[in-house]
Protein backbone atom coordinates (compact mmCIF):
# COMPACT_ATOMS: atom_id res chain seq x y z
CA UNK A 1 0.00 0.00 0.00
CA UNK A 2 1.29 3.45 -0.96
CA UNK A 3 0.93 6.29 1.57
CA UNK A 4 2.13 9.88 1.92
CA UNK A 5 3.41 11.26 5.21
CA UNK A 6 4.86 14.63 6.15
CA UNK A 7 8.62 14.37 6.17
CA UNK A 8 11.00 16.70 8.02
CA UNK A 9 13.93 14.34 8.63
CA UNK A 10 16.81 15.83 6.60
CA UNK A 11 18.80 12.58 6.70
CA UNK A 12 15.89 10.71 5.14
CA UNK A 13 15.23 13.49 2.60
CA UNK A 14 18.90 13.49 1.58
CA UNK A 15 18.93 9.69 1.34
CA UNK A 16 16.17 9.95 -1.28
CA UNK A 17 17.52 12.89 -3.29
CA UNK A 18 21.07 11.52 -3.31
CA UNK A 19 19.99 8.04 -4.42
CA UNK A 20 21.61 7.21 -7.76
CA UNK A 21 18.17 6.38 -9.25
CA UNK A 22 16.98 9.93 -8.46
CA UNK A 23 19.88 12.36 -8.25
CA UNK A 24 20.97 12.61 -11.87
CA UNK A 25 17.41 13.19 -13.11
CA UNK A 26 16.63 15.99 -10.67
CA UNK A 27 19.96 17.80 -10.45
CA UNK A 28 21.54 20.53 -12.50
CA UNK A 29 25.31 20.99 -12.57
CA UNK A 30 25.29 23.14 -9.42
CA UNK A 31 23.15 20.81 -7.30
CA UNK A 32 24.26 17.29 -8.24
CA UNK A 33 25.18 15.22 -5.18
CA UNK A 34 24.59 18.12 -2.78
CA UNK A 35 22.74 17.53 0.45
CA UNK A 36 19.98 19.81 1.67
CA UNK A 37 21.27 21.56 4.79
CA UNK A 38 17.90 22.89 5.89
CA UNK A 39 14.38 22.82 4.57
CA UNK A 40 13.05 26.33 3.87
CA UNK A 41 10.07 27.02 6.12
CA UNK A 42 7.70 27.46 3.16
CA UNK A 43 8.56 24.06 1.65
CA UNK A 44 6.38 21.07 2.44
CA UNK A 45 7.91 17.64 2.04
CA UNK A 46 5.75 14.53 1.72
CA UNK A 47 7.45 11.16 1.95
CA UNK A 48 6.17 8.34 -0.25
CA UNK A 49 6.00 5.08 1.66
CA UNK A 50 5.30 1.54 0.59
CA UNK A 51 4.76 -0.84 3.49
CA UNK A 52 6.39 1.73 5.80
CA UNK A 53 9.58 1.93 3.69
CA UNK A 54 10.55 5.26 2.10
CA UNK A 55 10.15 5.09 -1.67
CA UNK A 56 10.52 8.73 -2.64
CA UNK A 57 9.23 12.17 -1.85
CA UNK A 58 7.36 15.14 -3.20
CA UNK A 59 8.44 18.64 -2.31
CA UNK A 60 5.75 21.32 -2.53
CA UNK A 61 6.86 24.92 -2.94
CA UNK A 62 4.13 27.56 -2.74
CA UNK A 63 4.40 30.08 -5.57
CA UNK A 64 1.55 32.23 -4.30
CA UNK A 65 -1.75 31.74 -2.45
CA UNK A 66 -3.23 29.39 -5.07
CA UNK A 67 -0.28 27.73 -6.88
CA UNK A 68 2.23 25.14 -5.69
CA UNK A 69 5.27 23.89 -7.57
CA UNK A 70 5.98 20.16 -7.27
CA UNK A 71 9.44 18.60 -7.14
CA UNK A 72 9.32 14.84 -7.58
CA UNK A 73 11.87 12.26 -6.39
CA UNK A 74 10.64 8.73 -7.09
CA UNK A 75 12.23 5.42 -6.20
CA UNK A 76 9.02 3.72 -7.33
CA UNK A 77 8.11 2.90 -10.90
CA UNK A 78 4.97 1.85 -12.72
CA UNK A 79 1.58 1.55 -11.07
CA UNK A 80 2.88 2.46 -7.59
CA UNK A 81 4.44 5.69 -8.89
CA UNK A 82 1.10 6.73 -10.37
CA UNK A 83 -0.71 5.83 -7.13
CA UNK A 84 1.70 8.12 -5.27
CA UNK A 85 1.06 10.90 -7.81
CA UNK A 86 -2.70 10.58 -7.39
CA UNK A 87 -2.36 10.74 -3.60
CA UNK A 88 -0.24 13.86 -3.97
CA UNK A 89 -2.79 15.56 -6.22
CA UNK A 90 -5.64 14.69 -3.84
CA UNK A 91 -3.63 16.27 -1.04
CA UNK A 92 -2.43 19.27 -3.04
CA UNK A 93 -5.87 20.24 -4.31
CA UNK A 94 -7.22 20.43 -0.77
CA UNK A 95 -4.91 23.43 -0.31
CA UNK A 96 -4.26 24.91 -3.77
CA UNK A 97 -6.03 25.63 -7.04
CA UNK A 98 -3.07 25.01 -9.37
CA UNK A 99 -0.10 22.63 -9.53
CA UNK A 100 2.96 23.26 -11.70
CA UNK A 101 6.26 21.56 -12.34
CA UNK A 102 9.28 21.98 -14.58
CA UNK A 103 10.90 19.11 -16.47
CA UNK A 104 14.32 19.44 -18.11
CA UNK A 105 14.39 18.41 -21.76
CA UNK A 106 16.67 15.46 -20.88
CA UNK A 107 14.20 13.98 -18.37
CA UNK A 108 11.63 12.40 -20.67
CA UNK A 109 10.37 10.08 -17.91
CA UNK A 110 9.43 13.07 -15.73
CA UNK A 111 7.48 14.68 -18.56
CA UNK A 112 5.71 11.39 -19.35
CA UNK A 113 4.82 10.97 -15.67
CA UNK A 114 3.36 14.47 -15.42
CA UNK A 115 1.34 14.10 -18.61
CA UNK A 116 -0.03 10.71 -17.50
CA UNK A 117 -1.17 12.32 -14.24
CA UNK A 118 -3.17 14.83 -16.30
CA UNK A 119 -0.80 17.79 -16.46
CA UNK A 120 -0.66 19.78 -19.68
CA UNK A 121 2.29 21.48 -21.31
CA UNK A 122 2.00 25.19 -20.61
CA UNK A 123 5.25 26.54 -21.96
CA UNK A 124 8.98 26.22 -22.40
CA UNK A 125 11.68 28.02 -20.43
CA UNK A 126 14.49 28.17 -22.96
CA UNK A 127 18.07 27.59 -21.87
CA UNK A 128 17.10 27.52 -18.19
CA UNK A 129 18.78 24.34 -16.88
CA UNK A 130 22.53 23.67 -16.90
CA UNK A 131 23.28 19.97 -17.28
CA UNK A 132 26.70 18.55 -18.12
CA UNK A 133 27.85 21.99 -19.20
CA UNK A 134 24.96 22.47 -21.66
CA UNK A 135 22.05 24.87 -21.32
CA UNK A 136 18.80 22.96 -21.72
CA UNK A 137 15.17 23.95 -22.02
CA UNK A 138 12.58 23.09 -19.39
CA UNK A 139 8.95 22.31 -20.08
CA UNK A 140 6.47 23.93 -17.73
CA UNK A 141 3.51 21.65 -17.00
CA UNK A 142 0.40 22.59 -15.07
CA UNK A 143 -2.88 21.22 -13.79
CA UNK A 144 -5.79 23.11 -12.25
CA UNK A 145 -8.02 21.79 -9.50
CA UNK A 146 -10.99 21.96 -11.88
CA UNK A 147 -9.18 19.90 -14.51
CA UNK A 148 -8.20 17.35 -11.89
CA UNK A 149 -11.74 17.05 -10.52
CA UNK A 150 -13.02 16.57 -14.07
CA UNK A 151 -10.51 13.75 -14.58
CA UNK A 152 -11.68 12.07 -11.36
CA UNK A 153 -15.28 12.09 -12.60
CA UNK A 154 -14.21 10.38 -15.84
CA UNK A 155 -12.50 7.46 -14.05
How does this structure look, described?
The chain has 155 residues and is α+β, with helices and mostly antiparallel strands. Helices cover 32% and strands 39% of the residues. The protein is built from five helices and seven strands, in the order βααβββαβαββα. The chain has helices spanning 10-17, 20-26, 78-92, 108-116, 145-154; strands at residues 2-6, 44-50, 53-62, 67-74, 98-104, 120-131, 134-144. Strands 1-2-3-4-5-7-6 form a seven-stranded mixed sheet, sandwiched between helices. A hairpin with a 4-residue loop joins β3 (53-62) and β4. The longest helix is centred in the middle third of the chain and has 15 residues, at 78-92. It starts with a strand and ends with a helix.
Which properties best describe this structure?
single chain, 155 residues, alpha+beta, seven-stranded mixed sheet, 7 strands
Secondary structure topology:
Elements: E1 2-6, H1 10-17, H2 20-26, E2 44-50, E3 53-62, E4 67-74, H3 78-92, E5 98-104, H4 108-116, E6 120-131, E7 134-144, H5 145-154
Parallel strand pairs: 4-5
Antiparallel strand pairs: 1-2, 2-3, 3-4, 5-7, 6-7
In short:
The chain has helices spanning 10-17, 20-26, 78-92, 108-116, 145-154; strands at residues 2-6, 44-50, 53-62, 67-74, 98-104, 120-131, 134-144. With 155 residues, it is an alpha+beta fold. The longest helix has 15 residues, at 78-92.
Query: How are helices and strands ordered from N to C?
Result: EHHEEEHEHEEH
What oligomeric arrangement do these chains adopt?
single chain
Percent in helix? 25-40%
Low-pLDDT windows of residues: none
Q: What is the 3D form?
A: globular
Strand content: 35-45%
Terminal CA distance: 20 Å
Within the largest sheet, what's the order of strands?
A: 1-2-3-4-5-7-6
The total beta strand count reads: 7
Q: Structural class of the helices, strands and pairings? A: alpha+beta
User: How large, in whole angstroms, is the Cα Rg?
Assistant: 15 Å
Mean pLDDT: 94
- Number of helical stretches of at least 4 residues: 5
Biggest sheet architecture: 7 strands, mixed
Amino acid sequence: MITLQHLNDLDLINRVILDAAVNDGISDDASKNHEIQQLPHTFECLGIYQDEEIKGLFMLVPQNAVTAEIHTCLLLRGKEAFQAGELLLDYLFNNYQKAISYTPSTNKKALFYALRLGFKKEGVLTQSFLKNGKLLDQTLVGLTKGEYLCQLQQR
